[in-house]
């Protein structure tokens, strides 16, 4: 019953067909992963993509949590003997978290309130008299309640008002009314804490020392910045609608006429709003706005990470990794085409103790001795200087030179992962190796680093950490499975993210490979300890074996579909290998002939695409890039200057671009194009090569403003 309920609600919320949602939920219950479902179960889902399936999964988890919450609420109310059939039905039918908590509020066990004390004093009947607003002499009526527990008339009236205030604050309709006011007109206000205004820490929050803006218009990055200032004790933050209007509207609901009782009820409603309702709804809106800002920030982070992980790889070439530096020199590593370390040494081409001739000779010899095909230079300290130095050298063969982001390389080099990989090397060698390997295959290298350390998000430490981790892990999983993984070269860290595997099975695969040599077929995976039929089904299609006897083992065709391809080959009078090699034969195939109850056109179309380009890499080709030779520091910049740059980070408010001055400039969203831009990701991508114009340089604040307006982009 629950699943049916869930299906209908989720389908409605996400505007998806019920059948697709129902089948997706069933597949998830069976333990299928999101990449597997989106890639190999298109017939069942109606072709839903990873994002849609992830949304279904997330909404399903929330609804399961809500179902548990409803059980708790029903049991609590039932134990009080107050669970009527009508109330039970309302709870059963409710799937809105806010509404559910409003229903529960009057029955919710709470600490001893002023209203409870008044009820214990027997003042509830007096509160009813006041609420009816017919009594012309409330003080006389209150006299009847004065006694041992209630000292005087004023105390009796006050107690009755406390009961009225709590009743109003727990009234669903009253809460809905105040909530509507907040939604319509709430303003977020930030003020600096006076004692902190002149401190160094406060300077970065100067924009918010006296800030006010309608909450609905407050962007996610501003809200997160304000909340960070609040958490650091620098800002005092409040969210409020127009208090007088909201209170008056509320009074119109409860106050009838102008008699003495009406005045007392009006006072109680004012108290209900200021003391109970407003703080409660303010907390609610603070949490909701923070949740929305978190969601936006996490989405931006996930999109940036997605683009970064799918950056163009150089591929299996012999690479030199260079970790530039001044004082400690440049750490050089030479790697073979599989990323194994061949050699490492330090050279000193830069001050304070430069030895350019020796550095040049050493580097030229290394390039020659190890047949280096490409050089990866980290983009940190001394990057520009090292790039210029290396480009000035003369090699005996063509060598491509790239500048590579080293964000997270130092974190990786000191990590347990790096120590496990290279126990005999120090952190400098590990860092340079990470830079070199990033050029060869960004995805394979970056999966070893905590995504939060890669530097492609905003306010990553301010958002919900559990949600951030889930989103980023999911992004890594999607990227790894969309590219596919070489079963014979992948590290255990990369294998961990393959559909159906995890740390244990990934380690078991690597151990099996070490013991038995390279895998010759996907079927061999079944011999790996603890890798059962379910895991095999989930992972097999995403693992590639280049040079396998069966060419399908190096494709995205799932082993469960091999029989279909074999039948196609048989019908064409050839082997599977001949079919893969012969594009003309592929064109003769009428896929409609192979449709069955379980296999439809979506799967068959995917199979034909794989036969055309088996084991294809969906990532783009890498391009060389060179900064402007005349610009090295912010002091070299002047307004109107046009420069090449690389996009290093994308936010909701624009894109950060490295122009080679050791400090990224900001292209504000309004300067990204000659048209209105709602979402920067529609215009730019991470690591994209762009042309920018310098719009302003603030050396004191360390800010560079850039523009892409009116510039032809490649």
Description:
This protein has 714 residues and is an alpha/beta fold. It has five domains: 2-107, Arc Repressor Mutant, subunit A, CATH 1.10.10.650; 114-299, Tex N-terminal region-like, CATH 1.10.3500; 319-440, 2-Layer Sandwich (Nucleotidyltransferase, domain 5), CATH 3.30.420; 503-612, DNA polymerase, domain 1 (Orthogonal Bundle); 634-707, OB fold (Dihydrolipoamide Acetyltransferase, E2P), CATH 2.40.50. It contains 29 helices and 15 strands. It has a five-stranded mixed beta sheet with strand order 6-5-4-7-8, with helices on both faces. A five-stranded mixed barrel has the order 11-12-13-15-14. A three-stranded antiparallel beta sheet has the order 2-1-3. A hairpin with a 2-residue loop joins strand 11 (642-651) and strand 12. The longest helix is centred in the middle third of the chain and has 50 residues, at 260-309. The chain starts with a helix and ends in a 7-residue tail after the last strand. The mean pLDDT is 93.
Gist of the model:
The chain is of the alpha/beta class.
Number of helical regions: 29
Helix content: 40-55%
Rounded to an integer in angstroms, the radius of gyration calculated over CA atoms is 33 Å
Q: What summary fits the major beta sheet?
A: 5 strands, mixed
**Physical arrangement of strands within the biggest beta sheet:** 6-5-4-7-8
What is the terminal separation in angstroms?
56 Å
- pLDDT averaged over residues: 93
Q: What is the name of the CATH architecture of the largest domain?
A: Orthogonal Bundle
Count of discrete domains: 5
Structural class: alpha/beta
Low-confidence stretches: none
CATH superfamily of the largest domain: Tex N-terminal region-like
CATH class of the largest domain: Mainly Alpha
Number of strands: 15
In CATH, the topology of the largest domain is named Tex N-terminal region-like
Shape: globular
């Amino acid at each position: 019953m629950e699943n049916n309920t869930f299906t209908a609600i989720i389908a409605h919320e996400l505007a998806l067909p019920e059948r697709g949602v129902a089948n997706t939920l069933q597949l998830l219950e069976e333990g299928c992963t999101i990449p597997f479902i989106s890639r190999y179960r298109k017939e069942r889902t109606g072709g839903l993509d990873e994002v849609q399936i992830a949304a279904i999964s997330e909404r399903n988890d929330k609804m399961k949590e809500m179902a548990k919450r409803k059980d708790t609420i029903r049991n609590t109310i039932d134990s009080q003997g107050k669970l009527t059939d009508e109330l039970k039905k309302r709870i059963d039918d409710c799937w809105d978290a806010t509404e559910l908590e409003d229903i529960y509020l009057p029955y919710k066990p709470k600490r001893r309130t002023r209203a409870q004390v008044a009820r214990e004093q027997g003042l509830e009947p007096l509160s009813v008299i006041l609420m009816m607003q017919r009594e012309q002499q409330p003080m006389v009526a209150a006299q009847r309640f004065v006694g041992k527990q209630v000292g005087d008339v004023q105390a009796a009236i006050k107690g009755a008002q406390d009961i009225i205030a709590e009743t109003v604050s727990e009234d669903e309709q009253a809460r809905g009314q105040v909530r509507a006011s907040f939604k319509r007109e709430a303003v977020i206000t930030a003020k600096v804490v006076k004692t902190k205004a002149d401190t160094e820490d406060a300077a970065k929050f100067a924009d918010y020392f006296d800030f006010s803006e309608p909450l609905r218009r407050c962007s996610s990055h501003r809200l997160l910045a304000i909340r960070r200032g609040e958490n650091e004790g620098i800002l005092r933050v409040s969210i409020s609608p127009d208090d007088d209007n909201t209170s008056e509207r509320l009074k119109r609901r409860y106050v009838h006429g102008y008699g003495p009782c009406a005045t007392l009820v009006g006072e109680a409603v004012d108290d209900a709003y200021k003391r109970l309702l407003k703080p409660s709804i303010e907390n609610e809106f603070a949490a909701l706005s923070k949740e929305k800002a978190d969601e936006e920030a996490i989405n931006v982070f996930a999109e940036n990470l997605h683009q970064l992980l799918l950056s163009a790889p150089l591929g299996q070439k012999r690479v030199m990794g260079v970790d530039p530096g001044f004082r400690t020199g440049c750490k050089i590593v030479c790697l073979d085409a599989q990323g194994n370390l061949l050699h490492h040494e330090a050279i000193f081409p830069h001050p304070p103790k430069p030895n350019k001739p020796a550095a040049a000779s050493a580097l030229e010899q290394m390039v020659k001795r190890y047949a280096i095909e490409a050089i990866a230079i980290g983009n940190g300290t001394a990057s520009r200087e090292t790039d210029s130095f290396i480009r000035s050298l003369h090699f005996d063969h063509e060598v491509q030179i790239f500048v590579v982001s080293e964000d997270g390389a130092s974190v990786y080099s000191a990590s347990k992962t790096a120590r496990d990989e290279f126990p005999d090397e120090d952190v400098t060698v590990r860092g340079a190796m990470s830079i070199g390997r990033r050029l060869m295959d960004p995805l394979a290298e970056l999966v070893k680093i905590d995504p939060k350390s890669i530097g492609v998000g905003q306010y990553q430490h301010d958002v919900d950490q559990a949600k951030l981790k889930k989103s980023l892990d999911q992004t890594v999983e999607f990227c790894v499975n969309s590219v596919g993984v070489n079963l014979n070269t992948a590290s255990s860290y990369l294998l961990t993210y393959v559909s159906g595997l995890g740390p244990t099975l990934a380690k078991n695969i690597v151990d099996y490979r070490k013991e038995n040599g390279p895998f010759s077929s996907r079927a061999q995976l079944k011999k790996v300890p603890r890798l059962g039929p379910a895991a095999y089904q989930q992972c097999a299609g995403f693992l590639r074996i280049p040079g396998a006897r069966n060419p399908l083992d190096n494709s995205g065709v799932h082993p469960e579909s091999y029989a279909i391809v074999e039948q196609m080959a048989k019908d064409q009078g050839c082997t599977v290998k001949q079919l893969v090699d012969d594009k003309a034969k592929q064109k003769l195939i009428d896929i409609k002939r192979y449709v069955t109850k379980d296999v439809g056109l979506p799967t068959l179309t995917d199979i034909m695409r794989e036969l055309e380009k088996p084991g294809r890499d969906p990532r783009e080709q890498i391009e060389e890039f060179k900064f402007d030779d005349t610009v090295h520091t912010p002091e070299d910049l002047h307004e109107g200057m046009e420069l090449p740059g690389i996009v290093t980070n994308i936010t909701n408010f624009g894109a950060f671009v490295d122009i080679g001055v050791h400090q990224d400039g900001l292209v504000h969203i309004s300067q990204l194009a000659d048209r209105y831009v709602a979402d920067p990701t529609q215009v730019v991508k991470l690591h994209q090569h762009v042309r920018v114009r310098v719009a302003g340089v603030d050396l004191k604040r360390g800010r560079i403003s850039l523009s892409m307006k009116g510039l032809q982009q490649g």
